[in-house]
Amino acid sequence: MVQVLRQARWLFIACLSFLVACSSKTPLTKAPELYFKQSTLAFIDLNETRRNGAVVDKGLFYPKDTYSFTYRYCAVSPESALNDIAEYQQLAKRTCDANGGKLVHQQTGTWCVNNANTSDEFPIFYARISSTELWADLCLDGPFVTLRVVENTNAPADEWLASAKVLGYQPYTATRQLVSSNDSYGQLYQAPATPVEDIDMWDQESLYIYNSPGQTVCLYNQENTNQLGHTYQGVVENVNLGKVRVLVTRKLKGDIRTAPTLELQHWHDRAYITAPAQSWFVCG
Description:
By secondary structure, the chain is of the alpha+beta class.
């Protein structure tokens, strides 16, 4: 009888331990095919042309260094680049659909979200693909193709949401303006990010720049008359009311974060640019 009671007692303890273990808050992970970065890496690995590219614009500060992935490669022909763009756009839509989401095209670009256009909307990932036919001397057969993904890894939902806002996500409001509500063909809207004026929404890089006189920084500007745009480089002189005044000493062709080479352009000996802190990035 004593032996039976002992066995029952140990059985009870074992069952209790099992229930406690199962009820602990173990983070849940999604299947690999539901992560768009994983799908992007598989897209890159499909052929040698894409594999011969490089990761660019890695970011030095949170949250960009944690959630953002940018990759560039040289296509074999203009037609190949167009096919890759169409394929990647479809991949973004399929991955978004698999997550039960919908693509919404905001002023800052295309986000896959749950519960689109409601107060419960929540970002899943950001996707972008673009190409440029410039730098033909470095990419002889076709244009450069650039991919960008912004996606949560395993951060808590509130931390990811705050980071997504910093990286361009615009939460739903009754007055939010979408570029297009049509995601039938998985088209990804291409747009430059708009600087965030609220200092509470700044990322670590903007805060660092704002508090670092003498720091070398850059600003990228894409003019209406120039598809490629230019990068302006200089040092922080002073700051005021969320804006940074920089003594700019160099003007370079394109966005140096993704450009395959640095090409100096004609510029003044001394010139100042004052712009919101989030317009600048550390580049030296």
